[in-house]
Amino acid sequence: MNRVDTGDTPDAGLSAADHVLGPPEARLTLVEYGDYECPACIQAEPLVRHLVDTEGHRLRFVFRHYPLVEVHPHAELAAEAAEAAAAQGKFWPMHHLLFAQRQHLDAAALAGYAETVGLDMLRYHGEMNDRIYTQRVQEHRRAGDRSGLRATPTFFLNDAVVDVSFGFEKLTEAVHTALKGR
Asked: What's the pLDDT band for 6 if we cut at 50, 70, 90?
């Protein structure tokens, strides 16, 4: 993972709390604020993976947690489980697995996913019981609030919001247009 700490905009403000795929010198940075229980985020996941896979060195992808706890009661705990996996070097396998599970994100299910990705389960249970990743998840949420977020998923491409409210093809178009223009 490549991490940079340079400011407070969605792209320039990358920090050690961010999860990054792709090289720091990539031409584009795509930041997603997402929620593991959000149906639209679940739908967007395969497209985002495809963009990351096909654009390779030209695109850097950043995922930030934005659990909408008011409507998704397990989203914050799922985000904390992803952070527990990150602490053991397995954020991306856990991230992908959480988005693959459409309904089951309670504590028992999350522990099963942690075991599936090969986490040290004694450490996982200790960290989850102590809720040591709550603050990190809430930091992501506050950064989203400062950026004016209201819904998930929200995407920023090089600091500009990409409106996907009329379909995720807008995200693909924005990436391809930005790559052609550079």
From this structure: very low
